[in-house]
TrEMBL record:
Organism the protein comes from: Nocardioides daeguensis
Family annotation (PROSITE patterns): HTH_MARR_2
One protein family per Pfam: MarR_2
Name the UniProt record assigns to this protein: MarR family winged helix-turn-helix transcriptional regulator
Cleaved signal peptide residues: none
Occurrences of domain HTH marR-type (ranges): 1-137
């Protein structure tokens, strides 16, 4: 493809990062975390999130999200806690083992960013990050304040 759409180029970069992070997580001994589980876990917030919201953000059914959260919970990556805003509801929050995995993922993400900065140069990398942040304003329905 001589002139790929910018979205395809972003997808290729995102897929590369996802693969590298998955490999780093497995190499650190967390080889029971599947890609599907990781994609759902990546949407966890500090305050917790309901399964229905996870499903919506991951663009999967509530049933699929429930199954994946069950798997994450059995593997001790997340816990379910009562929602303080609604006693009938439960929130999914990251557990200590999940935080360990998150630390591994963030280290690998920083390593990739350093590599990309060396390849592009600091100025072009800063411009890329700024442009992508600007695009997020019109593309991310879960952007806080939106």
């Amino acid at each position: 493809m001589p002139d790929p759409h910018p979205a395809l180029l972003m997808f290729i970069g995102a897929r590369y990062v996802e693969q590298r992070v998955s490999e780093a997580i497995a190499a650190a001994g967390y080889d029971d975390l599947t890609l599907a589980m990781a994609r759902v876990a990546a949407r966890l917030s500090e305050d917790g999130i309901r399964v229905t919201e996870l499903a919506e953000q991951a663009r999967i059914t509530k049933q699929s999200a429930s199954v994946l959260v069950d798997q994450l919970e059995r593997a001790a990556y997340v816990v379910r806690v009562p929602d303080p805003a609604d006693a009938r509801a439960r929130l999914v929050v990251i557990a200590p083992r999940g935080r360990e995995v998150l630390d591994v993922a963030r280290r690998e993400e920083r390593a990739i960013e350093r590599e990309w900065t060396r390849h592009l140069g600091a100025e072009r990398m800063a411009a890329l990050k700024e442009a992508l942040a600007d695009l997020r304003e019109i593309t991310d329905p879960w952007l806080p304040g939106r």
